[in-house]
């Protein structure tokens, strides 16, 4: 750099600065960026980057090829134009909230492909840092999971049809037990009672035996009615989940000679048929298993509702077990519960401690039900 002496305009002197290290640093940064872009553009995933202002600053070649858009059209918030309108607000909310907290996030949304079709994307974003470790924005990667979601929905539809067929068969058997077998047993019990009254006092042993048989017939009749009720609860159909759950707990308590505390609150009168049936079947399975295997004699069932979800808990105070093994196991009861809960977009969890009892918790979105029957994944 040349400098002129203000006191002597004819006099000029120079200053030299060694910038070798800075050049090396700049070259290293440039090489690192080129290496990143080479890797990003050949990666089998869609990659994006954003700055500290939340605006996107980079999209790799696979993203641009997938969307069929130019880099300029995607920068800033331009990428959002390709997100399905039904997913956009949720997508932006998840991104913004995670960004403000500097947290990792994963979300699913539909992104428009170059052919105009929407595809389901799993997008994972993580905070990134500058060389001085200051926050520099986010980097994210996306994968097309449409085929996986279609396969999962196909399996769900199969499970739904199997469960519907099972429920139809339960209803048919329940009707036959109640309307046919139960009535015939009742008539047979009445006939035995009349025969017993007609016997002469000279045959007390026969009369006593017939009375015992008649009493046994009454008990069988009661048991058949209970089985019919468990197969298909008319209370569930006409009075709702709370009344049906209370009745089931009362019947099981009397039948098994155990104590079952039932409580409910906040439940809407318009709980859908699908949710009601799901919760009732889960309650039956969970409580029967608890009575049978926990070794306890006291149980608690709670059913609560809010504007957003319905929550069922079944708790015993027995010997407990390894909950992780149970959740990963292949028991038919647990598989059935999980499938039913998943069909109404709910979650199920088990917490248990040895000698400290077990709790099964089910949470179902309040708006699940009819809308869960058929979903157009690519609409």
Give the SSE map.
Blueprint: E1 2-4, E2 12-14, H1 20-42, E3 46-50, E4 56-59, H2 61-67, H3 71-74, H4 85-101, E5 105-112, E6 118-129, E7 135-144, H5 146-198, H6 204-231, H7 234-238, H8 241-256, E8 259-265, H9 273-293, E9 298-305, E10 309-316, H10 323-327, H11 332-343, E11 347-352, E12 358-365
Features:
379 residues; alpha+beta; Beta-Lactamase; Heat Shock Protein 90; 5-stranded mixed sheet; 11 helices
Question: Can you put this structure into words, describing what you see?
Answer:
The chain is of the alpha+beta class. The chain has three domains: 2-144, PAS domain (Beta-Lactamase); 146-232; 239-372, Histidine kinase-like ATPase, C-terminal domain (Heat Shock Protein 90). Helix content is 50%, strand content 22%. The chain contains eleven helices and twelve strands. The chain has helices at residues 20-42, 61-67, 71-74, 85-101, 146-198, 204-231, 234-238, 241-256, 273-293, 323-327, 332-343, and strands spanning 2-4, 12-14, 46-50, 56-59, 105-112, 118-129, 135-144, 259-265, 298-305, 309-316, 347-352, 358-365. The protein has a five-stranded antiparallel sheet with strand order 4-3-7-6-5, with helices on both faces. Strands 8-9-10-12-11 form a five-stranded mixed sheet. Strands 1-2 form a two-stranded antiparallel sheet. Strand 9 and strand 10 (309-316) form a beta hairpin. The chain is elongated. The model is unreliable at 371-375 (pLDDT under 50).
């Amino acid at each position: 750099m040349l400098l002129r002496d203000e006191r002597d305009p004819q006099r000029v002197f120079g200053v030299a600065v060694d910038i070798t290290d800075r050049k090396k640093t700049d070259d290293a940064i440039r090489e690192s960026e080129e290496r990143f872009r080479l890797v990003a553009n050949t990666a089998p995933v869609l990659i994006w980057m954003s700055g500290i202002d939340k605006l996107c600053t980079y999209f790799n070649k696979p993203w641009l090829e997938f969307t069929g858009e130019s880099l300029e059209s995607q920068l800033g918030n331009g990428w959002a134009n390709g997100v399905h309108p039904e997913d956009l607000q949720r997508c932006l909310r998840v991104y913004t909230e995670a960004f403000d907290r500097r947290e990792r996030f994963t979300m699913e949304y539909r992104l428009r492909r170059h052919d105009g079709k929407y595809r389901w994307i799993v997008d994972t974003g993580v905070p990134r840092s500058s060389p001085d470790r200051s926050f520099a924005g986010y980097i994210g990667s996306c994968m097309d999971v449409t085929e996986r979601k279609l396969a999962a929905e196909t399996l769900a539809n199969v499970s739904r049809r199997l469960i519907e067929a099972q429920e139809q068969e339960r209803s048919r058997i329940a009707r036959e037990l109640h309307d046919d077998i139960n009535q015939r047993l009742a008539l047979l019990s009445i006939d035995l009672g009349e025969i017993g009254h007609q016997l002469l006092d000279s045959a007390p042993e026969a009369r006593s035996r017939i009375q015992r048989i008649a009493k046994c017939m009454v008990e069988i009749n009661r048991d058949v009615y209970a089985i019919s009720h468990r197969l298909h609860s008319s209370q569930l159909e006409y009075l709702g989940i709370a009344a049906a759950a209370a009745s089931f707990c009362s019947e099981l308590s009397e039948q098994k000679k155990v104590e079952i505390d039932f409580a409910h609150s906040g439940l809407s009168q318009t709980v859908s048929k699908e949710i009601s049936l799901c919760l009732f079947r889960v309650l039956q399975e969970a409580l029967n298993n608890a009575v049978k295997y926990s070794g306890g004699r006291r149980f608690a069932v709670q059913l609560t509702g809010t504007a957003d979800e319905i929550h069922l808990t079944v708790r015993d105070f027995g010997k407990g077990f390894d909950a992780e093994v149970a959740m990963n196991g292949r028991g038919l009861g647990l598989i059935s519960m999980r499938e039913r809960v998943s069909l109404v977009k709910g979650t199920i969890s088990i917490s248990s401690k040895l000698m400290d009892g077990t709790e099964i918790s089910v949470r179902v979105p309040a708006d699940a039900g009819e809308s869960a029957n058929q979903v157009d994944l690519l609409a």
